[in-house]
Amino acid sequence: MSKIDPKNITNIIVTGKSGAGKQPRIDVLLEEFNLEQLSTGEIFRNYLGRFNEFDYKESLDEFYDEEKNCFISDGKIGRKIGTEDKDIILGLKAKYFVDKGLFVPDYITNDLFKSFFKKRNFKNQVLDGYPRTKKQAEFLLELMEEKNFKIDFVVLVENSDEKIIKRTVKRRICPKCKKVYHLEFKPPKDGKYCKECGTEVIQRSDDTEEKIKSRLNEFKEKTLPAIKNLEENDIPIVKVPGHLEEFTNENVYNSVINEVKKLY
């Protein structure tokens, strides 16, 4: 395996179980290598937002061919809704599944990712939440070859299921400014108010033990094969601890960079 030049980092993937502690490690990489964060959440909000702003009120069912199990052509969609804007059409496709409470299939997620990543010139990103499945990993590898960019390495944030469950059920979020707190490690003011804007914090609906266990199982079944696929294609995997006995900015920084430096 060839050495990595720390002055020429182009793209990094950060992955791990839901609740493993990815964001503090992402923050280290963003600052250390002067990168931007590209998350699947941001991608979906962007395209759903574009379609919602378009304010199309009719049913989306007519755009999906149930017999062929696919959307009709983009050209037909564009003519029916009155725009050829690719971002709005992508948003329509994502919204079709979201509104039905269905998982967005890989081929739609891949299209959204490619379109958004292209806006960032396929470089200088920390990819957060992508690839999540083996099919997404395969698509990313094909895209790397097609667009001639690289992924320098993958950071895998490791944490036990038990610690994740214990930590996540006590997580709270400000519904207004989205500041994240923890009742034990980073408590809000008086145990319930956001320190930034004073709004009463809430528990996310998917932070229950049952839903956390479901996400942990999904990581094992879907994301671990994706990570293995990347590793088999010569992308280095850097394992860093998601749990630290003493959680400080310095300890988080050292736990990440000391492992990454082994690639230099």
Overall geometric form: globular
| Uncertain spans | none
The largest sheet, given as strand count, sense and whether it forms a barrel, is: 5 strands, parallel
Series of H and E elements: EHEHEEHHHEHEHEEHEH
**Helicity range:** 40-55%
Tell how many strands the DSSP assignment holds: 9
Strand content: 5-15%
Overall pLDDT confidence: 95
End-to-end Cα distance: 11 Å
Our Rg estimate from Cα atoms comes to 20 Å
Q: Main sheet: which strands, in order across?
A: 2-5-1-6-9
Written account of the structure:
With 264 residues, the protein is α/β, with parallel strands linked by helices. The protein has a domain at 36-123. It has helices at residues 22-33, 40-54, 74-81, 86-99, 106-119, 134-147, 161-168, 209-232, 249-260; strands at residues 11-16, 36-39, 64-65, 70-71, 125-128, 153-158, 171-173, 180-182, 237-241. The strands form 3 sheets. Strands 2-5-1-6-9 form a 5-stranded parallel β-sheet, with helices on both faces. It has a two-stranded antiparallel sheet with strand order 3-4. A hairpin with a 4-residue loop joins strand 3 (64-65) and strand 4. Helix 1 crosses helix 9 and helix 6 (134-147) crosses helix 8.
